[in-house]
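Ticket #74: bound-state structure for zinc ion.
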Amino acid sequence: MIGTLQATEAVKLILGKGDPLIGRLLIYSSLDMSFREVKLRRDRDCPICGEHPLITELLESYQTSAAPPVLTAA
Ligand SMILES: [Zn+2]
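RESOLUTION: The complex was predicted; output attached.
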């Protein structure tokens, strides 16, 4: 279910259509089959989209063969 929602959001962003979940967090509860939406405010100190970003590009680093890729600051 969540994968379908994420794929739909990606298609909306690629096509520039609809109202994507920017600034909103969609919360899904499978126990009572409900959705809830929470507004998110931009964090001025965010290292990615804040006023002074520290992370400006995607880098993959592999610590060991078993470790997942980790995004690090440039
Ligand atoms: Zn951010």
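RESOLUTION NOTES: Helices lie at 2-15.
TICKET STATUS: resolved
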